Amino acid sequence: MPRIARNLIFALVAVALLFGLDYVLFNGVGSFQLTPYVTRVVMLAGVAVTLAVSLNLINGFTGQFSIGHAGFMAVGAYSSAFFTVNYGMKLAASLGGGTMGAFVEFLTATLIGALAAAIAGLVVGVPSLKLKGDYLAIVTLGFGQIIVVVLNNIESVGAARGYSGIPIVKSFFWIGLIAVATITIVYNIVNSAFGRALISIREDELAAEAMGVNTTRYKVMAFVISSAMAGAAGVLFAHCFDGYLNPKSFEFLKSFEILIMVILGGLGSIVGSIIGAITLTVLPEILRGFAEYRMVIYSLLLIVLMITRPQGLLGGIDPFKGWRARRRAKSRTQEEEITAEDTRDAVSVDKEGIER
Fold it and tell me: In whole angstroms, what is the distance from residue 3 CA to residue 18 CA?
């Protein structure tokens, strides 16, 4: 089957599954009904997956250390919310309102949030990624704190009171779609020439430079892409839950939480990031019934994991390794068959020429 057709089928199946899951979450099936609380936790887990996988691109696959991911999430959340509150409803009305108007409004808000976060990533990444060492960690930590301070003092987005009146999009479809898109983009990057350059930087930056890899360029590109994805997650956080934003939601603790998701799942593992994000979103809710012991149990579980498996749940494990090996072997066999057939044709033509 041609690759384009295969990708199209995958996209259609993914969209159909997301629509189905969205329906089940909000409407149930027959007597099976999920509570709004469970639905909210599932939606938060979807946003966490986008954040963890996007951070893993820079921390896991590129070998850099960013600890300000919540800052880029905040940029995406507030910039998209400002657009929808002030201009989005007018845009939707100009398109006749309804489903199409809401679709275009949210899509535009998502693009604006991702673009704003990407620009912020470029501004932060260009000066800090030219340097080697832990400068990125210092700069991103400072950036995250600065963003919170700035948001606390901008009256047009509610300042410390928070930003309210944001149109709510109660849908898991968008959350799932952006999570799937993030996973697909990161997976394709990692398994491309671009991804191999990033991994070479992670393994030995000096050797990568000696081999002609423009390390600064690749690091900045990865950082900008990662920031854009965090911005898209911020758009979801702003529009798919309470229609309210508060700068406190994006403080250092949030960045640290995303970082722990990546480390828990395993640096350099996409599947690990997904598992880590879901686990650290659901586990605190499961332990909520233990009241004062909840955080103690939560912390002990993390400590035990770090001692017994410091590389994370799936660190160093590639679940797709066998599938990729079979795919490469199949592709190699097809190429050999084509080459052999071309050789036979060429020999046949030469024979005919000699006989004449």
Answer: 22
d(C-alpha 13, C-alpha 1), whole Å: 16
Task: Give the DSSP letter of residue 166.
Answer: P
Q: Which of 301, 261, 233, 219 is nearest to 67 (CA)?
A: 261
In whole angstroms, give the CA distance from residue 103 to residue 124: 32
The residue assigned the tokens 């690759």 is: 3
Over residues 167-180, mean pLDDT:
91
Name the more confident of 131 and 192.
Answer: 192
| Average pLDDT of span 328-335 | 61
* Lookup: tokens for 349: 């033509």
Alpha-carbon torsion 74, 79, 84, 88, what sign?
A: negative
pTM value is: 0.84
149: pLDDT confidence band, cut at 50, 70 and 90?
very high
pLDDT band at 328 (very low <50, low <70, confident <90, very high): low
List Cβ neighbours of 228 (8 Å cut-off, separation of 6 or more). 114, 115, 117, 118, 121
Q: Is the Cβ–Cβ distance between 73 and 250 less than 8 Å?
A: yes
What distance lies between CA 88 and its chain's CA centroid? 25
Tens digit of pLDDT for each residue in 216-260? 999 999 999 999 999 999 999 999 988 899 999 999 889 988 998
CA distance 164 to 143: 24
**Angle subtended at Cα 243 by Cα 250 and Cα 103, rounded to the nearest 5 degrees:** 110
DSSP H helices in 61-190: 69-83, 89-94, 98-129, 135-151, 172-190
Cα separation, 332 vs 53, in Å, equals: 31
Region 21-44: mean pLDDT is: 86
85 close to 109: Cβ distance less than 8 angstroms: no
Provide φ and ψ at 6, rounded to 5°: -65, -45
Give the pLDDT confidence score for residue 308 in this predicted structure: 77
DSSP 194-260: HHHHHHHHHH-HHHHHHTT--HHHHHHHHHHHHHHHHHHHHHHHHHSSSS-B-GGGGSHHHHHHHHH
Q: According to the model, what pLDDT value does residue 175 have?
A: 93
Q: Can you spell out the DSSP letters for 265-325? A: H-TT-HHHHHHHHHHHHHHHHHGGGGGGGHHHHHHHHHHHHHHH-TT-SSTT--TTHHHHH
